[in-house]
Amino acid sequence: MYAIETKGLGKSFKNIAAVQDLNLRVPEGAIYGFIGENGSGKSTTQKLLTGLLVPTCGEILLYGKSYTDPGVRARIGVLIETPACFPGSTVWQNLMMQALNLGIENPKPEIERVLKLVNMHTAAHRKFKNCSLGMKQRIGVAQALLGNPKLLILDEPINGLDADGMRIVRETLLDLQKAGMTILVSSHVLGELSKIATHYGIIRNGTLIKELNANEMSEECKDFVFLKTGDDVNAISVLKKKYKHVEVKDEGIRVYDEEDSARVSEYLFNNKIFVKEIAFKKIGLEEYYLRIMQRKGDK
After folding, report:
1. CA dihedral sign of residues 205, 53, 196, 7
2. Which of 22, 49, 76, 215 has a Cα-to-Cα distance from 110 of 20 to 30 A?
3. What range does the domain containing 262 cover?
4. How far apart are CA 182 and CA 210, in angstroms?
């Protein structure tokens, strides 16, 4: 079953389509990385899924039921754009107000639970306005986790976080997914997203242009031998005599149809070309995304 499924979903503002014919499929138990440039329709889509916007057309199903179903909506945790908190109230007070708003019985242990999950329990009595941007993002994630939702929808949850903050959120999301939660998360920090996502959806101009799982993504992101030599111009000419796919990138040379860097080095040595640096690498999520965007933009 899909935790999220949209069919022909569309949303227009004054006859301008922000989302159009969107067919999204998020498997139950997935961490779905939702990727797109600014203005691509990510936040609009997430607002449609959570009922903050009404679709112009199409259908939204959550666990096979309409997204308007009260029982389904009660099991969604949401953080879109910025946490909804009162600046002059403490972290604890803000979470308590949200817990009461959700009708959570015995809210104190639940607040303690979510604060520990995002490593904010030591800052519970700090006023929200005195928290850093990264702390505020973690508070927003904690709010979304109140009531132990079945589906978590997060818009840029690691925005403004330092390396340790990103690690905490990453480990939290992985633990939640292992416990059976489905998570749809958008992020511009693609390197970090690639560490946790089981599935990906790439959106451009309100249209889903690619949807694939982590294994398919791994196949798309080719391995290559990266090297630098004392004479790259001559090295490229020599390499192209043996290998079909050779290109210059990142101030070095890439050979895509070879898995053994030692063979490349030996081949160049036999052709009297000195190798200064060589390593076996893989195309990352960010580079793959940029290539997809470039190809779609050229059409």
Report:
1. negative
2. 49
3. 222-282
4. 20
pLDDT digits (tens, 9 = 90+) for 90-145: 999 999 999 999 899 999 999 999 999 998 999 999 999 999 888 898 999 999 99
What value, to the nearest 5°, has the Cα angle with vertex 129 and ends 82 and 142? Answer: 50
The answer to whether 173 touches 118, Cβ cutoff 8 Å, is: no
- d(Cα 5, Cα 1) in Å, to the nearest integer? 9
Q: Are the C-beta atoms of 298 and 291 separated by less than 8 Å? A: no
Please report whether residue 297 resides in a domain: no
How many distinct structural domains can be found in the chain? 2
pLDDT digits (tens, 9 = 90+) for 55-102: 999 999 999 999 999 999 989 999 988 888 999 999 999 999 999 998
State whether 33 and 172 are in the same domain.
yes
- Partnered with residue 152 across adjacent β-strands are 77, 183
The dihedral over CA atoms of 38, 158, 172, 154, expressed in degrees to the nearest 10, equals -30
Total residues found in the chain within this entry: 299
Query: Hey, CA dihedral for 247, 249, 255, 256, is it positive or negative?
Result: negative
CATH number for the domain harbouring residue 263: 3.30.70
